[in-house]
Amino acid sequence: MTAPKKVTTDNGAPISDPETIQRIGSDGPLVLHDTNLIETLAHFNREFIPPRNPHAVGSGAFGEFIYDTDISDVCSAALFSEVGLRTPCLTRFSTVAGDRGSADTVRDVCGFSTKFYTKEGNLDWVFNNTPVFFVNNPIKFPQFIHTQRPNSKNLPDFEQFWLFFCENAQESLHQVMVLFSNRGTPYSYKNMNGYSGHTYVWTNSKGEKHYVQVHLKTDHGIKNFTNEEAVKTCGENPLHRQIDLHDSIASKNYPSWTVSVQVMSFEEASKLPFSVFDITKVWPHDKFPLRRIGKLVLNENPTNYFAQVEQAAFSPANMIPYMEASNDPMLVARLLSYPDAHRARLGKNYSQIPVNCPYKTRAYNPLHRDGKMQMDNFGSDPRYFSTLENYEFDTKTQFLKNLNKGAKFNNNQIVEWKHELSDIDFVQPAQLWKVLGKTPGEQKALIHNVASHLQNASPTTQDKVCKWFNKANVEIGTGIKLEIAKLQRSSKL
Ligand code: HEM
């Protein structure tokens, strides 16, 4: 038996009976002196915090990154200081569009975020399970998310879902094909990959910079639900992936991924047929092969979901020396958007919540102080950078000062930018169609999965969507049309 836990009020005064309240006579009114009742009801009213918008549904686990293959010619970050180093981390998986509490096996992109607690600060990889994304212009992100959710009348809206893609964001075809392939419904989080999607800039100790893309390949094999299995699982076991993650760890079948990078020089980037900052495109693997760097292993379940997963704040802005964001406009917008979301969701001092604290070092900045829920206000230290104090500054890595050093831009002027759609936007979707053709049934599954969804939209929208798919390969749009007709005939029988 463990020692008894003394029960108290919030100010620490002992409570004799937590279930007894005071009233005047057995039928009389309550006595307001009973502050424990008020405290208990007030706590209950404030139990919920705002959900993440988007990625509200999630599951998390602790683990470690094991650096096992030298990459020092490309990056000198703390994670890679010596081969064999183990860096503790927290990973959170998620779905994008659903409200908190919705089933975790819906057809959706899955988030794959990892916070590494390094001695040079916390590094976050806020990735997805797909190597590309729907849009490459951040101003389109909020409308993209809106169109994937119920409309203004809180009704499912298949027109807005499809018309956004095929009219407002045709560059999304590559990602839409991934989403509607069976990879859009992974069986479990441990059976899917993770990808940075974005291009990042990594620097070595000589100051040489490279573009990189990070890949986390599952060690358990890709396993997906079919459309019908995923729909059934949503109804029968809405926490299927959460339970699978928990039970795999509890039974010591630890989920793990092999972590690799694609590396590209700035010179090579200038010769690509598309922008290296375009997240709707992948880097060809024959020219930029994967270089292994280590393993990510999840081996510890959270003991308190709210404290360790719901309150976790992941952000691409959490970078460490030798790892920077590139000029991908989506990524740069994300640097601002996530900390802003955390301030709104968790409060200004969110980085002091234990799961977010850079506990391998100490966050110290005498200008970042006060505010609600401040836990570490740097004592009586001056509230400015005083010449009377003794500060240590980073003269070695010059981390933030070095951002963009060496990067070449066409000109220095501010330009108005918008993605201009061209044939190159349909080249990779066409290639993906051929790749799917190598696995029996995969092309058929894509056609069936799209048709099952698109049949709910109007015939005009169906036509527009089919024409859009035909830009990748006429077999797709034509096939979807035939499949819709088949599904509609069989539903009438
Ligand atoms: C301009 C584009 C984007 C914007 C403005 C944006 C914004 C957001 C916001 C506001 C959140 C909620 C954060 C929170 O409350 O903690 C979020 C979550 C998330 N986003 Fe994005 N996002 C964008 C693109 C992307 C891309 C391209 C990826 C993946 C490559 C991505 C992956 C994620 C993940 C994994 C989460 C969940 C983080 C967690 O587990 O807590 N997002 N996003």
From TrEMBL:
Gene3D superfamilies: Catalase core domain. PROSITE patterns: CATALASE_3. GO terms for molecular function: catalase activity; heme binding; metal ion binding. GO terms for cellular component: mitochondrion; peroxisome. The keyword Lipid biosynthesis does not apply. It holds the Pfam family Catalase-rel. Residues 1-20 are annotated as: Disordered. Its cofactor is heme. Belongs to the catalase family. Keywords: Heme, Hydrogen peroxide, Iron, Metal-binding, Oxidoreductase, Peroxidase. Catalyzes the degradation of hydrogen peroxide (H(2)O(2)) generated by peroxisomal oxidases to water and oxygen, thereby protecting cells from the toxic effects of hydrogen peroxide. Heme binds at residue 338. It comes from the Eukaryota. Residues 8-392 form the Catalase core domain. This is Peroxisomal catalase A. InterPro entries: Catalase (IPR018028), Catalase_clade1/3 (IPR024711), Catalase_core (IPR011614), Catalase_immune_responsive (IPR010582), Catalase_sf (IPR020835).
